[in-house]
Write a structure and sequence with these properties.
This protein is mainly α. It starts with a helix and ends in a 12-residue tail after the last helix. The longest helix is centred in the C-terminal third of the chain and has 30 residues. Helix 12 runs antiparallel to helix 20, helix 14 runs parallel beside helix 16 and helix 18 packs across helix 19. It has one domain: Growth Hormone, Chain: A.
């Protein structure tokens, strides 16, 4: 009798923990890709010095990753809905790791640009892959929490790419640091090979359930519900796209007059806030059984915090708290993914979520380039030891895009239809 009870307890623990273990392992790719996407905030000045470029070309190098990501997201969504998610993730992860090694040895700007483009192709699978797996291992009412946990993994990678990477680069140089990032990716790849599993054994996927590629694309990309949610997620991600991924440390050095390491520490708080906020906001949304209301609150509160970050005189410690709050509040974007997954048939989850990812990743390209154009347009740049330095006035002129974007995000969410955490059967 005791043996039977022990076996049942083991089965229950396995049932509860196994889905989390599998989704956690699949999220390694998202973690790794966020290091790739946000590391330019820590190596921007080194890149500009080594390749003899200014902010505009450095932005090209950063945004090439997001350009290829956007181009291939539809392809990724279609492939993930039709073939083994595990195999697709592993191939894409390997592509990203190899291109990281090549970038570490690149001395040509155009070879570096090519490496970033290839890395972005692989990373097109980094988020919708884990979401596709999660949709098979968890019920719809848990998806906001699970999505928040997956985004937490990504933000942990983004945080690692700030202060820790900055210190590492200062000690061994950016090229050696990238080699270490490459070996980290290779280690994760090995773990992913053994731990990722497409679906529970009792779940059978029928070929007849698959929706045609063009039909799925039309249903996802022309659905106003999906597009509004995608726009919201993209605009709420603007802080990470510009500050977290590229300009945050440089802005803080001018804003606060602090060292690169101190600026990187504050910038990393943006990701720490998202690490805490993603799963917590997702859990609250699931518990409330609501999606729209938490999204509205997140947009308004983010706008208020951003105005303080940009224009109110504060100390280093207070700015760190503000960046934490900014990351926490903008993490309400994770609800968008759960809402889109619920608003579309389960047989096209990856395609539907790819629509959100396209606007989000496309936002990186648009926001980074608009920010750099406004930065150069303001015209107070000067050279210091071969590195272009921009004034606080330059940064504040460019930062007008932040409050404008958050205001639009609030307007976008107003016309969304509440799903009440229930999966669409249509």
């Amino acid at each position: 009798m005791e043996l039977v009870d022990e076996y049942k307890e083991y089965g229950t623990v396995k049932t509860v923990l196994l889905p989390w273990l599998i989704c956690f392992t699949a999220s390694f790719f998202f973690f790794y890709s966020f290091i790739q996407g946000t590391m330019f905030a820590s190596i921007a000045d080194d890149i500009m010095r080594d390749f003899h470029i200014q902010a505009d070309k450095m932005t090209y190098l950063s945004s090439a990753y997001y350009l290829s990501n956007v181009i291939f997201l539809f392809v990724a969504g279609a492939l993930l809905d039709r073939f083994s998610t595990k195999k697709m993730i592993l191939v894409a992860m390997l592509l990203s790791v190899v291109s990281t090694f090549v970038l570490a040895y690149a001395y040509s700007f155009y070879l570096a640009l090519f490496c970033r483009f290839i890395t972005g192709i692989g990373s097109a699978f980094c988020f919708i892959g884990p979401i596709r797996i999660a949709s098979r291992w968890f019920p719809p009412k848990r998806m906001a929490l699970v999505t928040g946990a997956i985004v937490t993994m990504a933000m942990t990678g983004g945080m690692l790419a700030q202060y820790p990477l900055t210190k590492l680069v200062a000690q061994i140089g950016w090229r050696e640091a990238l080699l270490m990032v490459g070996w980290l990716g290779m280690g994760m790849f090995v773990v992913m090979v053994f731990c990722i599993k497409d679906k529970p054994e009792e779940v059978t996927l029928h070929k007849g359930e698959t929706i045609g590629v063009l039909t799925a694309a039309k249903m996802a990309y022309l659905n106003p519900q999906t597009l509004r949610a995608a726009l919201y997620a993209s605009l709420m991600n603007m802080a990470v796209a510009v500050f977290g991924a590229m300009m945050g440390s440089l802005y803080l050095m001018q804003r606060l007059g602090v060292s690169k390491e101190d600026a990187a520490m504050v910038n990393s708080m943006l990701f720490l806030g998202a690490i805490v906020g993603g799963p917590l906001i997702g859990w609250c949304s699931d518990r409330l059984g609501l999606r729209i209301w938490p999204m509205k609150v997140g947009a308004w509160a983010s706008l208020l915090v951003f105005l303080v970050v940009l224009y109110v005189p504060v100390s280093l410690g207070v700015m760190a708290i503000l960046f934490f709050l900014l990351g926490f509040l903008t993490a309400s974007q994770v609800i968008s993914y759960a809402l889109v997954a619920e608003a579309n048939p389960v047989t096209m989850t990856a395609t539907a979520v790819s629509a959100v990812s396209i606007l989000t990743q496309g936002g990186y390209i648009i926001y980074q380039n608009v920010f750099s154009v406004l930065l150069l347009w303001h015209g107070e740049m000067h050279m210091n030891d071969g590195v272009p330095v921009y004034s606080l006035g330059d940064y504040q002129a460019a930062a007008v895009i932040f409050p404008l974007g958050l205001g639009i995000a609030f307007l976008a969410v107003r016309k969304l239809k509440e799903t009440y955490c229930r999966q669409s059967q249509g």
